Amino acid sequence: MTSSVQMARKLVIFGTGGAGREVAQLARTCRGPAAKIVFAVDSDRYDPPSDASRFTVETPESLAASSDEVEYVVAVGDPNDRSRIVARLTALGAKFATLVHPTLRLSPDVKIGEGTIICEGALLTTDIEIGRHVYVNIGATVSHDCILGDYATLSPGVHIAGRVHIGSRVFVGIGATVINGKPGAPITIGDGAVIGAGACVIDHVAGMTVVAGVPARPIPRKAPATGD
Fold first, then answer.
1. Are residues 93 and 33 in the same domain?
2. DSSP 58-107
3. pLDDT higher for 176 or 43?
4. Which of 69, 123, 181, 216 could be stapled to 186 by a disulfide with Cβ–Cβ 3.0 to 4.6 Å?
5. Contact 71, 86 (CB under 8 A)
């Protein structure tokens, strides 16, 4: 349960895109319509929203220099970007909030790390460990005996069956599924892997691998764009 001290703090949502606006709605549901919510942007990458009148937008540096008590959540879908932003905010001394939609009835056997976001319509059963700054999107389900590593992202409509271990900075695309592992032999998805939208994972996925299709198979990872 959120303490009165936490309730009094200003909640800063890093990111002004669609995810940021959805997380703002989640925050108001969790904390009430009177919650103090502002947005933060990374001035060298993220632009303020076009309808700025709907938002109060600041930079992390200006917030760090103020006397306000603030907490952050990072509403950015890409796990690597989220990791980078958290590192920057941590260096500024930021504290992080955890947002879980109030309709989600959590078992006491579900552990959730700081900075994690769990949206409306998600379902988590029992004996689940969720790391720090994980993003469980709308309608995603996680069954028994699963582990989600730090900065993992489950897109809308993802279904993770029992006994699956997902590494850190894994991105699971919209509507993807991972079948269940076996007792003592969970299905593992390695750090930094990407699961394509609609894929069905039926076996282990190596770290830094992109898989897609039914059943999911490795595909070449696109090379990053290079500047002139």
1. yes
2. E-HHHHHHSS--EEEEE--S-HHHHHHHHHHHHHTT--B--EE-TT----
3. 176
4. 181
5. no
